[in-house]
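U., I forgot to send this yesterday:
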Amino acid sequence: MRKASILFFGFLLTLSLSVSPSDKGYLFIIGGGDRPEGMMKKFVELAGMFRSGKIVVFPMASSVPKETGPAQISELKKAGAKKVEYRVLTRAQALKPENAKILDDAGGVFFPGGVQSRLVNILLGTPLHKKLLQMYEEGCVIGGTSAGAAVMSEVMITGDEKRKTEEGHDFETIEAGNVVTSQGLGFIKTAIVDQHFATRKRHNRLISLVAENPQLLGLGIDESTALIVRPNQTLEVVGQKNVIVYDVSHAKIKILPSRQVSFSKMIVHVLISGDKFDLRAREVVE
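Result:
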C-alpha cells in the first residue's frame, strides 16, 4: 500500500512539473540595427532545444519579403542553424487551417523588420497565430527584430501619432491619446515593447503610453541589443547597448483635458548586457 502511495504521489509530482510555468518557451526580442553574431547564435541554440530545431522565418513586415527572407536565412545559417526556411503568406493563406502545418516540428520562429502593421494584419487571429501562441507555451523560441519586436506585445505601437507633424518632428511631446496603438500578437501581455529606442529618441512615446496604461511596463530596447524572456518571465539583456524599463504602477498620474500628462514616482531601470529583470516582481534580479 505504501509503495503504491509513493508511486501515486510521484506521478502527481511529475504531472505538476509537466504543466508548470517553466514549460513556457522563450522570446528573443531585438531592438533593431546590426546584430552581433553571438546574439544570433544564442537564438539558434534556443531553437535547437525544442522539437527538430527548425527555424521558420516570416518576413511579411518587409516591403521586399522575398529578398528579406533569403537574407535572414543566410544570417541564421551563418550562426549555426541547420534547417531554416522562410514563408511569405497572405491573409487568406494564413486563415487556412492547413497552413498552420508550416510550423510542424519548428523549434524557432523569427520575424524580420519592416512595418509591424503589415505582419499583424496578415497573422492576427488566424489559425497560424493560434499555433504560434501554443508553440510558445510549449517551449518554442519566438524571435524578432525592429518591427518583429514591436509585434511581441499585446498593445502594439504602430509607429504613427495622431498629432500632425512636420518631417523630423515626430513624437516631440509627452501627451495622452497621441500615440497610435493596435493589437499585437500578444506574446507579452504585461508590457509594451518599443525598439530602436535610445538611438531614435523614442522615450516620449513610450512614457506617454505607460501613463495611459499604468498596469503595463514599458520596455525600450535599443539597437544591437536584445531581451531574452525566459520561461520564468525573467528578462535577460544581451548585446551592445541598453534596455530601459519604465514602471508607473505606483506612480501618481494626472491627465488633463488638454491631454497633458503629469506623474511622479515613476521607476526607471537602465539595463545593460548581463542584467536581468523579473517581469512578475517588477524588479532587477541581483
